[in-house]
Design a protein that fits this description.
The chain is an alpha/beta fold. It contains 25 helices and 16 strands.
Length: about 700
């Protein structure tokens, strides 16, 4: 066989020498087939020196981690590459270019040597000796299959171990049934792309994870309603509206127990009570068609004895679907959807990420099994208690910088002057004492427009943190996301806070401010979400028809309706603007008529006008005149009138897009009054032909 292969290699080398050009150490070369074969034979016979000279021969090319620029060495950059480079360059100029973690670190120090305040390993189980020993012991058993996945679970990937672990997980998470997924992302995409039908409604928190958005984009329904973040009153209004929709069969409510970027806890108890109150008039279970789906990704492992917030609050019977992930506090990979048997069977038949993905490896399955066994045994109570203490200590130390419970480093702009600093989330309903009952989360975002600079400074000082910027978070809410862990010491936390305070001091010369969003986060009280927008001084924003004009912003944040007087003033102003728009349309028509008259005299064109300035029905124009060029000074006048009219029309369109009934009524009233006053004559042969559109 070797001789046949050698002969084939020689023939190919002689016939197609250019096609066998191999690139080694970033240089292309083509060797004579005989010489190449001789060197391979020498290396196989143990000639180490020849093997060192030919890395391909000894098979150590894979060991080299240096990148090889094959495309640039062998071919010119094609159109696809050029387009990609242009897009990436544009993203870099706007400060939006993403990099992998190692490439984004501001110091040459390996991340393993930095003090970890970034990863989601909340319980520090990646360094837990008991867990490591149990996992190694399980994988070393002779009867245990360690490697391989074999395929999709619908083909050859399924096994008895999968179903056994799903049964144990359903018991541990207090659910009727369970279904494993490769990741929380796959699970959310599967849930929201398959469960909602065409006439169903999905109500989701405005800060819900991107995976839910991706799932909703693939769903059959187009009734996707955002809810103001953790606003129980607004959520109840939307649920009530959904139940009254004709043809709607089910309403899905998408929430997270702990929001990954802000670190705040969902007011789940209040949400359940509000939804139950809306459904109180239902006669039987068939009419109770509101289904809550809770993503427990950032609560699993340390809340509710490791089960999450739903179990902590004993609300398991009220939640239709729970999603618990293993890749954060539990130091494994994958996720489990806790649901009814019918939902599980439905996902098996329709969830494309499950159907068309190779299932998770056997070694990961065993790790999931071991970590949950230890959780059930209470083996991580010490870690939970340590995490709880560290979370509160970090929030207290960061809050002490400015004397508030949330910190925001800023510079310039409107806001409160004299406050330098940071903003950290603290929940007002802490539950101290029992390990695993933590409601103070380990996530503490520091909001600052200088997130990249702050993260880089902390990295150079030996602390592993990451900046989070737009588009991962909303524009204007850039932050450094700080995650504390069970293994962090108070000395490490103090060191981090000192560096943050030092950074704030270096920025104090440029002034400081607390943004509107920072103020909202500072004052957030999870016992009173229904009035959150009113108390925080922020604007209500609705994408659905609404009647309330109080606490509403009209296009600009500065045009904020807060009182009855400001509401009346705003309605009158909008009405007058609509009247002004109709006057502008009339003025443009009169100006065009006057210009046409002057041109008719200049070019000897026979045009007759009535008293209102409009062209009469019987118009005869000298053929030699044709289209006449308007003089420059008159064209400037026409263009200015048109520009003002267009700007005003777009502004009125934006007022319409508030979906607020009183504001829309003011626009319609003004348009009607203006048309009655300025357009009483019927223009039979108008010089300005217009149509209804965004601007007229």
């Amino acid at each position: 066989m070797f001789l046949v292969a050698l002969y084939t290699l020689l023939r190919l080398q002689r016939c197609y020498p250019r096609r066998l050009a191999w690139i080694l150490d970033n240089s292309a070369f083509t060797e004579n087939g005989v010489k190449r074969s001789t060197r391979i034979l020498k290396s196989l016979q143990g000639d180490a020196e020849a093997g060192k000279k030919d890395k391909m021969a000894v098979g150590d090319v894979y060991e080299s981690s240096s990148p090889r620029d094959y495309a640039l060495k062998t071919n010119k950059m094609n159109e696809l590459e050029r387009r990609i480079e242009r897009v990436l360059a544009s993203r870099k100029e706007r400060g939006l270019l993403r990099r992998l973690g190692g490439d984004a670190i501001a110091t040459a120090t390996p991340t393993t040597e930095l003090i970890d305040f970034s990863t989601n390993d909340y319980l520090s189980l990646s360094r837990n000796k008991q867990l490591i020993k149990r996992v190694k012991g399980t994988l070393s058993e002779p009867t245990v299959q360690v490697l391989g996945s074999k395929g999709s679970r619908l083909l050859d990937g399924d096994s008895a171990l999968h179903r056994q672990i799903e049964g144990r997980l359903s018991n541990f998470y207090r659910a009727p049934d369970a279904l494993l997924f490769n990741s929380g992302y796959d699970a959310n995409v599967s849930l929201f792309s398959t469960l909602p039908d065409a006439h169903d409604v999905v109500i989701y928190d405005e800060l819900i994870h991107a995976s839910v958005h991706d799932g909703m984009r693939s769903s059959r329904t187009r009734h996707l309603w955002p809810c103001r973040h953790s606003d129980v009153k607004h959520l109840a209004e939307l649920v009530g509206r959904a139940r009254q929709m004709p043809g709607a069969t089910s309403t899905f409510v998408a929430l997270e127990s702990v929001y990954s970027m802000d670190g705040d806890v969902c007011p789940l108890q209040e949400v359940v009570e509000a939804v139950e109150a809306v459904q109180a008039d239902a006669d039987d279970a068939a009419e109770r068609n509101v289904h809550m789906i809770v993503d427990e990704a950032h609560a699993t492992g340390y809340m509710g004895g490791g089960r999450g917030l739903v179990s902590q609050l004993e609300l398991d019977k009220h939640i239709s679907v729970k999603l618990n992930t293993f890749g954060k506090a539990l130091c494994a990979a994958g996720a489990v959807v806790c649901c009814t048997p019918s939902i599980r069977h439905y996902l098996i038949n329709y969830a494309r990420p499950l159907i068309f993905s190779t299932c998770m490896s056997m070694s990961n399955l065993h790790t999931i099994d071991v970590v949950h066994r230890l959780l059930a045994e209470g083996a991580f109570a010490k870690e939970m208690h340590s995490l709880e203490g560290n979370s509160r200590y970090l929030k207290g130390r960061l809050g002490g910088i400015c004397g508030v419970t949330r910190v925001s480093v800023g510079s310039g702009g409107s806001g409160e002057s004299g406050e330098s600093g940071a903003t950290i989330a603290r929940n007002s309903h802490n539950s101290p004492g029992t390990p695993g009952t933590l409601l103070d989360t380990p996530i503490s975002p520091i909001l600052t427009p200088h997130s990249r600079e702050l993260a880089g400074t902390l990295q150079k000082r030996g602390f592993l943190v990451r900046p989070v910027t737009f588009p991962t978070v909303p524009r204007g809410s850039d932050r450094v996301r700080v995650c504390v862990h069970a293994h962090n010491t108070k000395e490490e936390i103090d060191g981090l806070v000192r560096e943050v305070e030092r950074f704030m001091g270096s920025r104090s010369g440029s002034g400081s401010s607390v943004s509107s969003r920072s103020k909202l986060l500072t004052q957030m009280d999870h016992h009173n979400h229904g009035d959150m927008d009113m108390d925080m001084g922020t604007c209500k924003m609705d994408m659905l028809w609404n009647w309330s004009i109080t606490d509403r912003c009209v296009v600009f944040e500065s045009w904020h309706i807060t009182t009855f007087t400001s509401a009346i003033f705003s309605l009158l102003t909008i009405t007058l603007l609509a009247v002004l728009f109709e006057w502008l349309r009339w003025r443009m028509r009169v100006a065009d008529a006057a210009i046409a008259a002057s041109l008719a005299i200049a070019y000897n064109v026979d045009v007759n006008f009535n008293e209102g300035g409009d062209v009469e029905e019987n118009v005869t124009v000298n053929r030699r005149a044709g289209k006449l060029l308007v003089p420059k000074h008159q064209q400037i006048q026409r263009s200015l009138l048109y520009a003002v009219s267009a700007a005003l029309s777009f502004f009125l369109m934006l007022v319409f897009m508030t979906y607020n009934a009183p504001l829309i009524a003011a626009v319609i009233l003004g348009a009607g009054v203006g048309h009655y006053v300025f357009h009483r004559e019927i223009d039979v042969a108008s010089l300005n032909q217009s149509s209804v559109g965004c601007h007229l």
